[in-house]
Amino acid sequence: MARKLAVVAIGGNSLIKDKDHITVPDQYRAAGETCHHIAEMIAQGWDVAIGHGNGPQVGFILRRSEIAAKVAGMHEVPLDSCGADTQGAIGYHLQQNLHNEFKRRGMKKAAATVVTQVLVDRNDPAFQNPTKPIGSFMTEEEARERAEKEGWTVVEDAGRGWRRVVPSPLPQEIIELDAVRELLGAGVVTITVGGGGIPVVRDDDGSLRGMAAVIDKDYASSLLARSIGADLFLISTAVEKVYLNFGKPDQQPIDVMTVGEAKQYMKEGHFAKGSMLPKIQAIIWFLEAGGRKAIITNPENIARALQGETGTLILPD
């Protein structure tokens, strides 16, 4: 049987169920539920690379870091290192859960995490216009002081206080791509581009340098899917299907749509900027680059969506 290659992008909801379940053991159990469904997919004959979000986890590290700096005079953790920390920790949760799942099913499979750097263009317009809020709320005085001292960009956030904002540049290249390809070629389930990857720029001498930025994880997973020639790009998120008029009385589930229809729905404003829009855009890029099909669904419906029973299927024109 020909091997089929898929990229599965896991949303933050797969790791944090709700505000009452945010501890590390809670996150481990949530990752376990998602891994159960991914193992089902692998049992159906798929080779899988996994991308994942890390927004809340980076937020927790920054918060701890800020408190430790104030209370104990500890150094603060730079944003690129926070990204690396979360890739390791979330990767560990996923690979251990997958290991246990494979053992239960009698499957001879392995999973490994690659701490992944993703190249961004240092001239990306996003660096001129930082928009992604990170870290804790501050008073205006504290925010202006940090801006002066650290060179931060700070904004007032909807009457709730002041926050640091960082750029969200587009991903250009996966630095560890060859290693990812080697692992996938050996049949290893590979966890990579965690949190969109650690953003790096290439200096004139070719050396890499980490940046205080955030890459959209769906965009990075799309780049991964294109770079490894995946047959399928599956985005696992909070909803079973994509909807038109989402959250309104006349909301309508979409079973199947083409790239052309997706673009039309985008133009009509059906997809929210902070949630569904980047997912649809990421899928359009994948399909326009030669990908065969993409699916959006929630973790518990992955196996059913692969059988065509639910989820939203998106196809090239």
Radius of gyration: 20 Å
Low-confidence stretches: none
By secondary-structure content and strand pairing, the structural class works out as: alpha/beta
The CATH class of the largest domain is Alpha Beta
The strand count comes to 17
Strand fraction equals 15-25%
Characterize the biggest β-sheet: 8 strands, mixed
User: What value does the average pLDDT take?
Assistant: 95
Q: Strands across the major sheet, in which order? A: 3-9-2-1-12-16-17-15
**Helicity, as a percent range:** 25-40%
Query: How many domains, as an integer?
Result: 2
Number of helices: 9
| H and E string | EHEHHEEEHEEEHEEEHEEEEHHEHE
What does this structure look like?
The chain has nine helices and 17 strands. The strands form four sheets. An eight-stranded mixed sheet has the order 3-9-2-1-12-16-17-15, sandwiched between helices. A four-stranded mixed sheet has the order 8-4-10-11. A three-stranded antiparallel sheet has the order 5-7-6. Helix 1 links the parallel strand 1 and strand 2. The longest helix has 27 residues. Helix content is 39%, strand content 24%. The protein starts with a strand and ends with a strand. It folds into two domains: 263 residues, Acetylglutamate kinase-like (Carbamate kinase); 37 residues, no CATH class. It is globular and about 60 Å long. It is an alpha/beta fold and 317 residues long. Helix 1 crosses helix 3 and helix 7 runs antiparallel to helix 8.
